[in-house]
Amino acid sequence: MKKRTTRGPKKLTGEIFDSLPSSEKERIYREFERLTPEQIDRQFRSLAPKERAGHMRPRKPGRPKLGKGVKVISLSVEKDLLKQADAYAKQHGLKRTQLFSLGLRLALSDKGLQGNHTA
C-alpha cells in the first residue's frame, strides 16, 4: 500500500472555491477580512530563494562518484553469456556493473585481448 503524505493545505482555486458550501465561503471571506494589508502581503507573497530552500525537503545523498562519475549505457549481451556473467559475479560477490568494469579494464590493459578482437 502506498504511503500518503500531506504537503500542507490545498491551493484554493476559483473552481474549488465556487464548489464550496456557502457557509465555508463566508468563513473564508471573514478570515480574509480580518487580515491587514501587511499580513496579507507577508502571508501570500512569493518566497525568496533562501526561504524556499528552507521549506524544501532535504535531498538524500546521491551515489558516490567513482572516478570522474559514471555514464549509464544500454548494452546488448547474449542471454547465455549474461547468465554466465551473473553467476560468476554472484560467486565472487560482485555486482554486474563491477564485473563489466573489471572486464573492460582487463581488455584495455596490456594483459587483455592482445590483438584477439573476436566477439
Question: How do the strands and helices of this protein lay out in sequence?
Answer:
Blueprint: H1 14-19, H2 22-34, H3 37-44, H4 49-55, H5 79-91, H6 96-108
Number of helices: 6
Q: Enumerate the spans where pLDDT stays under 50 for 5 or more consecutive residues.
A: none
Number of domains: 2
What is the overall silhouette?
elongated
Question: How far apart are the first and last residues' alpha carbons, in Å?
Answer: 46 Å
Annotation, overall tally of beta strands? 0
Strand content: under 5%
* Rg calc: 30 Å
The amount of helix comes to 40-55%
Largest sheet: none
- Work out the oligomeric state of the chains in this entry: single chain
Q: Structural class, from secondary structure content?
A: mainly alpha
In N-to-C order, the SSE pattern is HHHHHH
Mean pLDDT: 81
Tell me about this structure.
This protein is an all-alpha fold and 119 residues long. It has 2 domains: 14-55, no CATH class; 70-113. The protein is 50% helix and 0% strand. The protein is built from 6 helices and no strands. The chain has helices at residues 14-19, 22-34, 37-44, 49-55, 79-91, 96-108. The two termini are 46 Å apart. The mean pLDDT is 81.
